[in-house]
Each structure stands twice: as C-alpha cells, then as structure tokens.
Structure prediction request, 107 residues.
Amino acid sequence: MTQAIQVVTTTAEKADAQRIAAALVERRLAACVQVDGPIESCYRWQGSIERATEWRCVVKTTDDRYSDVESAIRELHSYDEPEILAVPVVAGSPGYLRWLDEETRPA
Prediction:
C-alpha cells in the first residue's frame, strides 16, 4: 500500500474549490476532497501584507499521486502561485486507508 497524504490548497471562490474538488475525484487523483470555509488568510505577497477570504480544499490521496494532483491543481487554479502543501498521514484506520488507496488507483 502506498503512503496516504493530505494535500491542502485554498481558493478565492467557493465555486473554484468545488470545481477543483470534483475534478480531482473524477480523475481518481483523490478519494475525497473536503471543502471548508470561508476562512480568513493573512499573508505577505510581493512585499505587502494581504488579507483575503478563502476556501480550503483538503485532498485525501496517496504519495504516488502527488505530482498529478499538483499538476491538476495548477491547471484548474486561478492564483499565480497557489498554496499546494502535502502532509503525510502518520496513522489511520486500516479500512479507511485501504479505501483511500483503492479509490486513487487509475481505472
């Protein structure tokens, strides 16, 4: 079994987050994507401190699918440089991890 990971990205619009989530699941790049928000972000961008309301996508996938997930997010995202962070899953219920692995295998 491959290593489970969660990939996080944020979008400016809820519809964009929902579109990215649906595409990742349809392409079998993710077993599940949770969309939550709105969230408030404070960050430095091009020398200025910015604040924005955003929507967060938490992508449940595997490490062997990461590069395709990143490519798809970049393809579908409106930001010049979207947040794309992968975090390893250190433990999980065996049944859930098995399901995640099965649902992210190419058809």
